[in-house]
Amino acid sequence: MGLPRELLELLVCPKCKGDLRERESPPGLICEACGLFYEIREGIPVLLVEEARPLAEVLRDESPPPSS
Questions:
Q1: Domain boundaries in the chain?
Q2: Which of helix, strand or coil describes residue 38?
Q3: Which CATH architecture has domain 5-62?
């Protein structure tokens, strides 16, 4: 589903004012320049730097555990 394209064109990273890219799973917006992930909760982007997670953490959390 995702956010409307018109809205995505208007949104910028609150930290660096750079472009944001939408991610579907987990739902959120990514700032490549800052390496931050902004969660989308109930269809609403949470664009607070204090609430953002490091992108590396989000990617690590979703990767499967190493098989033994």
A1: 5-62
A2: strand
A3: Single Sheet (2.20)
